[in-house]
Predict the 3D structure of the following.
Amino acid sequence: MQTFGWPEALFILRSAGWTLALTAIAFFIGGAIGGVFAIMRLSRIRWLRRFAAGYILVIQSIPVLMVLFMSYYGLSALGIELPPFLAASASLSIYVSAYLAEIWRGSIESVPRQQWEASASLAHTTAQTYRHVILPQAIRISLPPTVGFLVQLVKNTSIVQVVGFVDLMRAGMLVNNATYQAFQIFTLVGAIYFAICFPLSRLSRHLEKVMNASRSH
Amino acid sequence: MLFQDVFSKWPMILNGVWLTIVLSFVAIGLGLVLATALTALRSLAGSWAGYIVDAYVELMRNTPFLVQLFMIFFGLPQIGIRLNGLEASLLAMTLNLAAYATEIIRAGVDSIHKSQIEAGLALAMTRWQVLKHVVLQPAFARVWPALSSQFVLMMLASSICSFVSVQELSGTAAIIEQDTFRSFETYIVVTVLYLVLALSFKLFLNWLGRKLFPQVSGLARLTEAHGEAA
Amino acid sequence: MPAVLIEDIHKSYGSLAVLKGVSLSVEAGQVVAIIGRSGSGKSTLLRCINGLETFQSGKIEVAGHTMTQDPTKLRELRKDVGIVFQSYNLFPHLTVGQNIMLSPRITKNVPQAQALALAKEVLAQVGLSEKFDSYPDNLSGGQQQRVAIARSLAMQPKVMLFDEVTSALDPELTGEVLLVMEKLAKGGMTMLLVTHEMSFARNVADTTIFMHQGLIWESGPSKEVFANPQTPELANFVKAGAH
């Protein structure tokens, strides 16, 4: 049995780097897909709306663990075997896409109706209205919940070991299996997660205060 | 693709569903009691109590549920407290839900204007009566949508308890998958079951909200808030 | 040809009839005030003229365009018909200058330098040159409304619609807005205004129309309409003062 010393701690810290990388990739890819679904959700074409709504509803009504398994084994069934990092990125991106789509759709719908009217009255096309009037405001509105969701994402990366990826959590478990000092190990692991998540949570709350201040005029 | 192998294990699956439901309901019940106590503690005991509650809430909301679960299951034995998988899961889910619920209830309580409390006191109510009728009851009504979302998320998070060998639905899926090697079929069935569970639970909570808080059911539908994952 | 021609407009929201056969003709340079109780259909009528509301039957022709729901034609119509809203609806993420320059640049492809000069000119017209780089939420309600007027003017419209533009303002701020509107009227702009400002209607508008229950109840030269109401509804309305 090993002791829990510096090499083990460093291994855990390095894996934290992988957790951050995974978070970033899932956030950006998931965000891009989520943006597409948000637009579909707001489309005038009924089947597009329903398809997007269904996609979002399903993913929001199942555990993240299932999203991981479904995408991993789903791809397997199609004959595609992805290496762990790609498998984890892909599954998490799907998870992210549904939640961000919903947040962003909500943000767009929060832009007051009169802004649409004013823009249309100035002879803007729908695309121009989105680009110059609605999206700039929607993005501002979406910042607090989007940053808040980022915190959820970081925490949910803790289960990607089920597709074989060694992230911060898995690293902790491996060290625990070797050293059996769970209390110290998971305190360190927890502290690292906390160090990542807490500032983001604070940022989200700060952004919300700033938003509320500028809206009360 | 053979679903038959999976369907033949239906007693096991049913047990898994049942355990998921029981685990969720007990954790939610205990978690709510704890959350209410913490909220009361915060408002009645002064600022030091407030700081401790805040610290607890921040800790639970900024670390993954899996870490909390493992801390209880693997870490506590080091200081002499040995819990089995089910006990550890129940404790972890309760503590986690209580943190989120405290925050949500606090938002509800804060939204009750001071003038309401003054009105209650002016009508010769005791402090306890004011707390119950003027503060807590309307506060709960207002945040019921957010609380409901959190309950559903907690039920989905119970899937993580499979990591400590609890045979709720996900744990059962793992065993069936090992037995039958039908990974895709197993997880499709289990995913659909979770979907049914979550949507039914949501409908049930909506109905419950209308029964418990009839006076604000319209408002509740308008102010649907976002929940957060465990 | 009249600047605005409205022929027998009928509009319902589901089973609720809001406009029950409204016809109106407005010549270029004419200023028409539309008064009436809430629910009389006056704002709905105004919003039909630039296509923000649709109607089930009838015809509207404005500034040489026929009202249509075809998006391209509707946009062409809206380049010639300006509207100012009760809640100003300035774009909060853009400065005053950017608010004014946006539409000429993106809908008429006016080059940046020209758009800038145009924006400064209309802003001077409403008396707010020094606010060019300010954001809307740093301005008072009256100032925001004047910027809204300038934003419409920058499109060089042939007809301007005003939908209760002073109703949301504190009393001491309505004056500055009414002054700008009076200047526009004297300058020959064709204007239709839904308003509660009775003295403005009487003194500045050539024609006043009183709407009641979805119909034009009375109409005529402003001074006449206010001095000699022909129907009890208008008489009561004028007596009540504003609402």
Summary: The mean pLDDT of chain A is 92. DSSP finds eight helices and no strands in chain A. The radius of gyration of chain A is 21 Å.
